[in-house]
Amino acid sequence: NVTVVGSLNTDFTVRVERLPRPGETLCVPDAVMSFGGKGANQAVQLARLGLPVTFVGAVGADDRGREYVDRLKLLGMEMHVARIDGAATGLGFVHCMPDGTVSSTVIAGANARVTAAMIDEALTEAPRPALILTQNEVPTDAVVAAGRWARRHQVLAVINAAPHVSNGDELLGLFDYFIVNEEEALGYAGRNRAPQDVAGWLGLAEGLRRIAPNVVITLGAQGAVYAGPGGVLVVPARRVDAVDTTGAGDSFVGALCGALATDETIEHALECAARAGAMTTLGVGAQESMPEAGQVFGAAAA
Ligand code: ADP
C-alpha cells in the first residue's frame, strides 16, 4: 500500500481562447467544478490502479472539505485528514486553452496548515506503507517530516516537488525519487533557459541527483527523462489528441509510484506512468479521466 501526504483542492476550470490581459475581464459562459489538488489526484490515480491508499492532509471546516473526504473514503482510502477551523478547503482556478494546456492559481487554504506534528502522528497511526509519496502543495516542514519518517522506517520515499519552492537543500537525502516537470526542474537547477534537446534534459536530471538518487523530469507531450544509479532512460510519450492536460503529471506520478510499490523495475514503472499520463489528457478534469489498472499495467495495455 501507499501513503500520500498532500493537498486537496476544489478546482474551477474555465475554457478560454487565451489568457486575460492585465486589466481585462474575460467572460465565459460557465466553469467546470472538479476535485483536484496534486496530493488527492495522485492518491486517486493509485486507488484507480487498485492499490490500497492512506491519505494524510487537511481540509477547512466547510462543505467542500466534507464532501471531498467522503468521496475519497468511497474510493476506499483510509483518511487521516485534519479539519482546520477558520481555514477554507484549498481552491484551484484553472484556465484551459484550446490545445489543452492549462495555467492555474492555487489558493492553499487548509493545505497550508498541515504541520510536521500532524504528519508524524498520522504516519505512526496508519498502516506501514510500501511507499510514501508527497508534493510541495503542503508546507516544506510537513514534506520534510514525511521524508524523515520514511527514512527512519526504511520506507521508499517519493517526492513530486511541484510546484517549485526553494526547498532543494531541505530535501537533500530524504527521498529516493525526485519527480518534477520542466519548469520545476529549471527552478531546482537554478537555470532560466530550457535545454534545447533531450540530451540537455538528461544532463539536467543528472545534476538534480544531488537531491535524490533517482530523478524523473516529465516533458509533457515530449515524454520524460530519468537519471538514476543504473544510468539514464528516455521515456517517449504516447501519441494522443490531448483535450485537457490537467492531471497528466499527477497521473504519471501516481502510476509510477503504484508500479514501484509493487516492485516493478524502473523501466516498466516509467512505461506505465507514461501510459497513464497520456490517457489522462483525453478528458476534462484531473481525476475523472484517470485510467484503471487494466489500461496501465498488464497485457491489455501493451
Ligand atoms: P505536468 O502536468 O506536471 O506539467 P507533464 O505535462 O510533463 O506534467 O506530463 C506528465 C506526463 O504525462 C508526460 O511525461 C507524458 O508522459 C504524459 N503527457 C502529458 N501531456 C501529454 C500529451 N499531450 N501527450 C501524451 N502524453 C502526455
Could you give the topology of this structure?
Blueprint: E1 2-5, E2 9-15, E3 32-36, H1 38-48, E4 53-60, H2 63-74, E5 78-84, E6 90-96, E7 102-107, H3 116-125, E8 131-135, H4 140-152, E9 156-160, H5 168-171, E10 177-181, H6 182-189, H7 198-208, E11 214-218, E12 224-228, E13 231-235, H8 248-261, H9 266-280, H10 293-296
Parallel strand pairs: 1-4, 1-8, 2-6, 4-5, 8-9, 9-10, 10-11
Antiparallel strand pairs: 2-3, 6-7, 11-12, 12-13
Helix pairs in contact: 1-8, 3-4, 6-7, 8-9
The protein binds adenosine-5'-diphosphate (ADP).
The site of adenosine-5'-diphosphate has 20 residues, from helix 8 and helix 9.
What does this entry look like structurally?
The protein has a 9-stranded mixed sheet with strand order 5-4-1-8-9-10-11-12-13, sandwiched between helices. A 4-stranded mixed sheet has the order 3-2-6-7. Helix 1 crosses helix 8 (248-261) and helix 6 (182-189) crosses helix 7 (198-208). The chain has helices spanning 38-48, 63-74, 116-125, 140-152, 168-171, 182-189, 198-208, 248-261, 266-280, 293-296; strands spanning 2-5, 9-15, 32-36, 53-60, 78-84, 90-96, 102-107, 131-135, 156-160, 177-181, 214-218, 224-228, 231-235. The radius of gyration is 18 Å and the shape is globular. The protein has a single domain, classed as UDP-N-acetylmuramoyl-L-alanine:D-glutamate ligase (3-Layer(aba) Sandwich), CATH 3.40.1190. Strand 8 (131-135), helix 4 (140-152) and strand 9 (156-160) form a beta-alpha-beta unit. It starts with a strand and ends in a 6-residue tail after the last helix. The chain has 302 residues and is α/β, with parallel strands linked by helices. The longest helix is centred in the C-terminal third of the chain and has 15 residues, at 266-280. Helices cover 34% and strands 25% of the residues. The chain contains 10 helices and 13 strands. Bound molecules: adenosine-5'-diphosphate. Adenosine-5'-diphosphate (ADP) binds at residues 162, 181, 218-221, 223-224, 237-238, 240, 242, 245, 248-249, 252, 274, 277-278, 281. One of its GO terms (molecular function) is metal ion binding. Belongs to the carbohydrate kinase PfkB family. Ribokinase subfamily. Belongs to the carbohydrate kinase pfkB family. Pathway: Carbohydrate metabolism; D-ribose degradation; D-ribose 5-phosphate from beta-D-ribopyranose: step 2/2. Residues 1-292 form the Carbohydrate kinase PfkB domain. Catalyzes the phosphorylation of ribose at O-5 in a reaction requiring ATP and magnesium. The resulting D-ribose-5-phosphate can then be used either for sythesis of nucleotides, histidine, and tryptophan, or as a component of the pentose phosphate pathway.
